[in-house]
Fold this sequence. Notes:
Number of domains: 1
Mean pLDDT: 87
Oligomer: single chain
Radius of gyration: 15 Å
Distance between the termini: 22 Å
Shape: globular
Amino acid sequence: xxxxxxxxxxxxxxxxxxxxxxxxxxxxxxxxxxxxxxxxxxxxxxxxxxxxxxxxxxxxxxxxxxxxxxxxxxxxxxxxxxxxxxxxxxxxxxxxxxxxxxxxxxxxxxxxxxxxxxxxxxxxxxxxxxxxxxxxxxx
Length: 139
């Protein structure tokens, strides 16, 4: 069984992503992200940042939707907190795997899981710190 929080997240974001896929050249985005990973292997997002990587694109595919996480109960936050980026990618494959753009993204993730997991760990830490300062009880 997958991660229900990530599944809900992907289901909520998928219409936005699909619309973006229709209007933009996703292959260029993937190529730009690939070059970014190659040239910035030790990249970490800044403190208090909720975006995995800033490419200057109008789509920050990995920009975490903070409103979604704010809407979760503490139990939902606990489920999210005890997950990792591979759980997100698994749900992305299950929900969006019929889209060639998602398959391209999954291929890039499978090539550089260490990069995505490390960068996401920083976002995870940033969000956890934010929710703690908001008084949320999820750990």
